[in-house]
Amino acid sequence: MRFHQKPIMHVSQVNLKVQNIDRSLAFYTSVIGLSVLNRTETSGQLTADGKTVLVSLEQPEGVTPKQPRTTGLYHFAILLPERSDLAAIVRHFTQIDLQFGASDHLVSEALYFSDPDGNGIEIYRDRDPDEWTWNGEEVVMTVDPLDFDDLLENSEPKEWQGLPADTAIGHIHLHTGDLQRSEQFYTEGLGLDIVCRYGSQASFISAGKYHHHIGINTWNGVGAPPPSPHSAGLASYSLMLPDENTRLQIIERLKAKEAPVSEADHGFTTEDPSGNRIQLLV
């Protein structure tokens, strides 16, 4: 988990708009295995360790179904500490008959599914970074079938009891309407590095030589519009920065590029060129 703690910049929290808070909280607790840390009539904060918020849910007034073919969330990814944890949740998903996809990305092994509002979710475990292959500044990733037999037979048997305490948000993958402008925002503005490109349609971006903290793609179409403010889906996500000096430098660069930056009680917020809101935390 060294790629998901200071001083490496990383995604720390995902904030979602949902249509039915009770339905969503039931899904995130009973299916995924998070615990409710705080809740109100229309919102809930979810945790794995009992103190750190990983996912925040809100049912806004007038919320509508998730709008298709727009920018916003493709998926957010929950990172498990051990391969045995991934095997345990595979057994759990099989027992509750949850439909899910799966891939071996060489750097990781991953499961894919959606919440009741259609928000994409990945749950994965990383291979040891010593096993990753780099071609210069780009890490080698692919989309191969996951070997379930090997995963289940060669992992320490572990009963599923919810997500482990040291679970983290591993990365977020976003739909964008303009890949080049988004690359410039995340590299020149936020100071991240492009570590892999998937043709001309997707880029993977990180700090500290991780395989990716942020993915961006144009799979909903070049020029895809932002969703309606009332649409279920991504409200914002949080980037944890190394220190206040780094945040001030980022804010200065963003303002120089005429990117929106606003200050509120929780800190500073910006938006990428496709309207994806980012909370800049320290």
Secondary structure: elements and pairs:
Layout: E1 10-17, H1 21-32, E2 35-39, E3 43-47, E4 53-58, E5 72-80, H2 83-95, E6 101-104, E7 108-114, E8 120-126, E9 134-135, E10 138-139, H3 148-153, E11 168-175, H4 179-189, E12 193-198, E13 202-206, E14 214-217, E15 233-240, H5 244-256, E16 261-264, E17 267-271, E18 277-281
Parallel strand pairs: 1-4, 5-8, 11-14, 15-18
Antiparallel strand pairs: 1-15, 2-3, 3-4, 5-11, 6-7, 7-8, 9-10, 12-13, 13-14, 16-17, 17-18
What can you see in these coordinates?
This protein is α+β, with helices and mostly antiparallel strands. It has one domain: 2,3-Dihydroxybiphenyl 1,2-Dioxygenase, domain 1 (Roll), CATH 3.10.180. It has five helices and 18 strands. The chain has helices at residues 21-32, 83-95, 148-153, 179-189, 244-256; strands spanning 10-17, 35-39, 43-47, 53-58, 72-80, 101-104, 108-114, 120-126, 134-135, 138-139, 168-175, 193-198, 202-206, 214-217, 233-240, 261-264, 267-271, 277-281. An eight-stranded mixed beta sheet has the order 2-3-4-1-15-18-17-16, covered by helices on one side. A hairpin with a 3-residue loop joins strand 12 and strand 13 (202-206). The longest helix has 13 residues, at 83-95. The two termini are 18 Å apart. Residues 262-282 are annotated as: Disordered. Residues 271-282 have a biased composition (Polar residues). Residues 10-126, 168-282 form the VOC domain. It comes from Planococcus lenghuensis. This is Glyoxalase.
How many strands? 18
The main sheet orders its strands as 2-3-4-1-15-18-17-16
Percent helix range: 10-25%
- Helix/strand order: EHEEEEHEEEEEHEHEEEEHEEE
